[in-house]
TrEMBL record:
Pfam short name (any one): Thioredoxin
Alphabetical UniProt keywords: Disulfide bond, Electron transport, Redox-active center, Transport
Protein name: Thioredoxin H2-2
Gene (UniProt): LOC109722608
Ranges where the Thioredoxin domain occurs: 20-145
Family annotation (InterPro entries): Thioredoxin-like_sf, Thioredoxin_CS, Thioredoxin_domain, Thioredoxin_H-type-like
Gene3D superfamilies in UniProt: Glutaredoxin
Organism: Ananas comosus (Pineapple)
């Protein structure tokens, strides 16, 4: 139980609606959505999220494979938050490779950070390394391809 004034993390999955959200529960019990960046807490949660992403062909998602010990991952985190603000329709999922090694292996992640852009269950692009401009460009391209 949280101490008065502390916030608790609230993770909700709405599989039927094709959405997952993460937010914070304030000490007064009210919930608020933080952003379009979602921490994936477990492999079981990932399975539910992935099922939803596969069935939704209109949502572009960025899978952010990261690790707590990864310096470049920490370096690019503010840029990822900036991109999430710029691309409000894109969902960003942070996946800790140490907690979900099986997910990282399935996606053939060999270095961190690795960003995999997916739509409708298919990989559409990949960025390996802390390359903000390349990630920005590839998200823009993927969104433009959707409009055409």
């Amino acid at each position: 139980m949280a101490a008065p004034g502390d916030d608790e993390v609230l993770v909700q999955f709405n599989i039927m609606g094709g959405d997952a959200s993460i937010g914070a529960r304030a000490s007064d019990g009210s919930a608020r959505e933080e952003s379009n960046i979602f921490d994936v807490p477990s492999t079981d949660a990932w399975k539910d999220i992935w099922k939803s992403l596969k069935s939704n062909t209109t949502v572009l998602a960025v899978l952010d494979f990261t690790a707590q010990w990864c310096g470049p991952c920490r370096f690019i985190e503010p840029a990822v938050k900036e991109l999430a603000g710029k691309f409000a329709s894109v969902k960003f999922y942070k996946i800790d490779v140490d907690k979900m090694e099986d997910v990282a292996t399935k996606w053939k992640v060999r270095a961190m950070p690795t960003f995999i852009l997916v739509k409708g269950g298919q990989e559409v692009s990949r960025v390996v390394g802390a390359k903000k401009n390349e990630l920005d460009r590839k998200i823009t391209q993927a969104l433009q391809a959707t409009k055409n």
